[in-house]
Predict the structure.
Amino acid sequence: MKKYLVYLIIFPWIIAFQSCDLNDDNDFSYSFEALEIVDAEFPDSFELGQIYRINVHMNKPGDCHYFEGFDFYRTGETATERTVYAIGSVLNRSDCLSLEGETIIAYFNFEVLFTGTYVFKLYTGTNENGEKEFLIYEVPVITPP
């Protein structure tokens, strides 16, 4: 009886581990990189406590690039300055095609929590000296009448 019990315990484990293949032969890999933002649609002013949809236009460098989301950093001396990066995933494949002039449009929702003027610095790429460049939008917060 004990012999059958051992087989009942060990046999399922042998079957389970034989069906697991830890070898990854499909070479599917990707990386993340910042996409270059070319334009954004901000309102002329914000109202305290409101939420706004901000449309962002960015370059799609190739057909292996996919938009993943935005990365926000609170920067500067005040609570109202934000640096924004558009993050894309890139498939590491050799058959990717370059796309000239194709853009992606995505959006983020922004809630106005502070008074003053919000400053948004949107990443547009690097210049010939390797320095980061940004589009800068300033949006004042108004008090409703």
Summary: The chain has one domain: 34-142. The beta strands are 30-35, 37-41, 46-47, 51-59, 65-74, 81-91, 103-111, 117-126, 132-142.
